[in-house]
C-alpha cells in the first residue's frame, strides 16, 4: 500500500496529501466519463477545453505498470496535461492485453494499424527506502524508435509533479516549445466576503491559500524565481503593496506611502520592482528595491501612469497612461529617461499591457463596442489581434512559454478564469466551485528558481 | 451604559431633526436612488455630446465654474469664503452636536454624500457642484472636522487603472473643495478602485452606481 511508503511527514502534511489524492480521484472519474472534450472536475476548480489546434498530434499514453497502486495515476495526469494544451489528440489503448511497458513489448504493426503515431510507456516501481522510481519512454511508432527516455526517483507526494515534468518533456519534444505543465499559478477567490490569494499547480490541483482577508486583494505578481509574490491588499483600508515569501510564509510591506500603493511588477533580475504611487500627486510609476529601499521616480506627469510591465531584457517598461485623454499603452526606457512612445492607437481604451516572454509582442485589454477583450499586438508591425470573445475580460497573464494566456472573465455575473492560446485557437474555461475567481498570475518556469 | 445613553440621545436628536426616524444609511440610500434616476435621464441626453468633449477641457471648465461661483458668492456677500486658520478650532467641540445633526438633516444637500461619474471620467458633473459646495461650506464652518473622500469605479476594464481612476475621482472632489477654501489638510483621499462595489449587477444601472466618489466623515456618529 502506498500509505506505508510515506515518509514520516507531520500529520498535517498527511492530511494535505490525502486531500490531493481525493482531487486525483475526482480527475480519474471525470476523465473516465470524458469524451473528446468537456468539463473536467478537478476538486476546487474545473477546467473545460473549448477549442483545439488545427493539427493535433496523435499520441497514446499507456497506463504505467504499477501506477494503480498510487492514487496519483501517471498516465491520467500526463494525458490531461497534453489534452489541456489543445495540441494533442489522445488515442485509445484498445483492448489487447498485456499493455506494453518496455520498448520490446510493443507490437509496432498492431499499433500502426490502430493509427497510433507516438506512444508513451512507463512503469512506477517502489523502492525499499519509501521512494518511487518512475520510468517513461516516448516512442515513435511510425519509424520504430525511442524519442525520449528518462527515470526519476521521487517521494510519493512528488508523483503528481513528476507526471507534469514528463508531460513537459513530451510537449517539448513534439512541439518544439517549452512545456509549462509543472508551473504554478496564483489567483484571487472571493466567496462570502472573504478574499483568498491562492497558489495552485497550473492544472488547478494542489490549491491552497497563502492569504485570506475580508478586504480585497488584487494584482498578484510572481518574482522571477517563483519564491515570492507581490500583491496589493486593502486590509488597512487603503491599497498597500506587500511581498509574500512562499518558502516560509512570511510577508513584508513593500510600499505604504500616503495615497495609493499599487501595480507591483518585478524586474527580470528580481532585485527591484516597479510600482505605482500617488504620494506626489497623480498615479506615477516608481522603482523600488525588493527590500523596500531606494525609491526612484520614473514618470512625472499630471496624468494617470500605471500598470508597468518590464521587457524580458529589463530595458523597457510598457505602461498604461491617459496622458493623451484616453487610457493607452506606452513604452519607455526602464530608467524613465527620454520620451515615452505611444504603442496603441486603435480605440479609446487600451490597458493592462504585459510583455510576451520573447519580448516581441504584448497582450493587453482592448475595449471595442462596449466589450473588453484580450488583444495581442506585435511591437515591430503594430499589428493587433483580438484573442477573446468575452464581454468583460481582464488581467491577462502569459504562460512562461508565451503559448497560452490566462485571464479573468465573467459568465452570468460570476468571475471565472479562462485561457486562450496566443494564436487565439485554443480556449479553456476554469471555474471555481463557488464564488468568484479572478486576478490570475502565471508563475515562472521551475528552472528559474534560485539555487538556495 | 454610558454609550447606550449617548446613542439614545443621538437617536433622539436625529429623530427630532430628521422628521422620520430612519437610520441615516437608509436616508442616504433613498437619496442615491432618486439621484440615480435623475442622472440616468440626463446621461442619456448628454451622451453624444460628452463623447466629443476632452477631459482636459472639462477640467478647465470645472475650475472656471468653481471660481466663478466663488466670485459670485463673494459679490453677493451672503456666503463668506472663510479660509481655515491653523489652530482656530476653539469652540468647535461645543458646536459639534449641532454640526453632526446638520449633516444628517433629511432632504438637505449635506445629506447627499456621493458624486457620480461617467465611464472613465473624473470630471464633476454640474448637478453635483451644489453637493460639493455645501460640504465645502460645512467644512469651512467646522474646521476641526476631518473628511475622507473615497473614489470608486465600476469593475470593467483594468482593476489597476480603475484604482488610479478612483484616486482621480477622489482628488477631483478634494481639489474642488480646496478651491472653495477648505484646508488641504482636512481632506484625506483614498481609492477603492473597483473593489468595493455597492451594486453587483453587470448592467449600466449597477455600473453607474459604482462610478462614484463618497464624502465620508470618519467621526460622524452613526
Explain what you see.
The complex is a heterodimer of chains A (452) and B (222). Chain A has 452 residues and is mostly beta strands. Chain A has helices at 2-5, 11-33, 74-84, 108-113, 159-175, and strands at 39-42, 45-49, 57-61, 88-90, 118-126, 132-140, 145-154, 184-191, 194-201, 208-213, 217-222, 228-233, 240-245, 251-255, 261-266, 272-277, 284-289, 296-297, 305-310, 316-321, 328-333, 341-342, 350-355, 361-368, 371-378, 384-386, 394-398, 404-411, 414-421, 427-432, 436-442. Chain A has a 6-stranded antiparallel β-sheet with strand order 1-2-30-29-28-27. Chain A has a 5-stranded mixed β-sheet with strand order 4-3-5-6-7, with helices on one face. Chain A starts with a helix and ends in a 10-residue tail after the last strand. The longest helix of chain B is centred in the N-terminal third of the chain and has 29 residues, at 24-52. In chain B, strands 1-4-2-3 form a 4-stranded mixed β-sheet. Chain B has helices at residues 2-17, 24-52, 55-76, 92-104, 129-141, 159-179, 204-210, and strands at 114-116, 147-152, 187-193, 212-216. Chains A and B meet through loops of A and α6 and β3 of B.
